[in-house]
């Protein structure tokens, strides 16, 4: 007999305090964990603390999680268009052009994250400087930690240029074998689903 617990992003965003306990609400720890916790940055809306709590208090060791696994990819690019998003640009007001001070123009701007649909970024507006790097992967069927961590990926430059922007996306394996993949990969990277880098027999959902 399977015992299933479901955690959704709606409860977290609405700041709803849902207290579930094995002794009070559940007769035993669940062996299936179904979640809907992801945002555009994958884990930016409290997904890891939710998984951490579930594994500590609500599910059995070796439980099955749906989705099962997530992977984040990144690529270093040169793009004047994307680079300008972190800088003040000249604007026109009543036919007059207003220019920012030179010191402001030279400022690199603060590191920031822009939530965009990469498929809407024209491929001709940037130049990849290196290969696509797998930054990290997390298995949600195993205990996870919400403490701050860092990951490093090394790559050999494919072309010369200015390292201006890191573009990233993620995908999730819905099942342990990765037969069903939900991917946020931009269309210009895998315009043909048959070219998606998974072994034969797997389905990709866009």
From TrEMBL:
Superkingdom per UniProt: Eukaryota
Keyword Cell membrane: no
Keywords, in A-Z order: Methyltransferase, S-adenosyl-L-methionine, Signal, Transferase
Database matches in SUPFAM superfamilies: S-adenosyl-L-methionine-dependent methyltransferases
Family annotation (InterPro entries): Arg_MeTrfase (IPR025799), PRMT_dom (IPR055135), SAM-dependent_MTases_sf (IPR029063)
GO molecular function, one term: protein-arginine N-methyltransferase activity
GO biological process: one example: methylation
One Pfam entry name: PRMT_C
Signal peptide annotation: 1-24
Domain Protein arginine N-methyltransferase, first and last residues per copy: 68-190
Protein name according to UniProt: Protein arginine N-methyltransferase 7-like
Organism lineage string: Eukaryota, Metazoa, Chordata, Craniata, Vertebrata
Gene, per the UniProt record: LOC107580820
């Amino acid at each position: 007999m399977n015992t299933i617990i479901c955690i959704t992003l709606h409860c977290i965003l609405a700041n709803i305090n849902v207290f579930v306990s094995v002794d009070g609400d559940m007769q035993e720890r669940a062996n299936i964990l179904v979640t809907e916790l992801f945002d555009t940055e994958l884990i930016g809306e409290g997904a890891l603390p939710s998984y951490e709590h579930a594994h500590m208090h609500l599910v059995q060791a070796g439980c099955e999680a749906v989705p099962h696994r997530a992977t984040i990819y990144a690529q270093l690019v040169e793009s004047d268009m994307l680079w300008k998003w972190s800088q003040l640009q000249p604007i026109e007001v009543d036919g007059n052009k207003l220019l920012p001070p030179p010191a402001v123009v030279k400022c690199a701007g603060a590191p920031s994250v822009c939530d965009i649909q990469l498929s809407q970024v024209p491929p001709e507006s940037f130049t990849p400087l290196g290969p696509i790097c797998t930054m990290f992967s997390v298995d949600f069927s195993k205990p996870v930690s919400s403490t701050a961590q860092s990951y490093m990926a090394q790559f050999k430059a494919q072309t010369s240029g200015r390292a201006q922007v890191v573009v990233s996306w993620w995908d999730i394996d819905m099942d342990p074998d990765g037969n069903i993949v939900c991917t946020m990969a931009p269309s210009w990277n895998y315009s043909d689903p048959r070219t998606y880098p998974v072994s034969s027999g797997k389905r990709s959902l866009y």
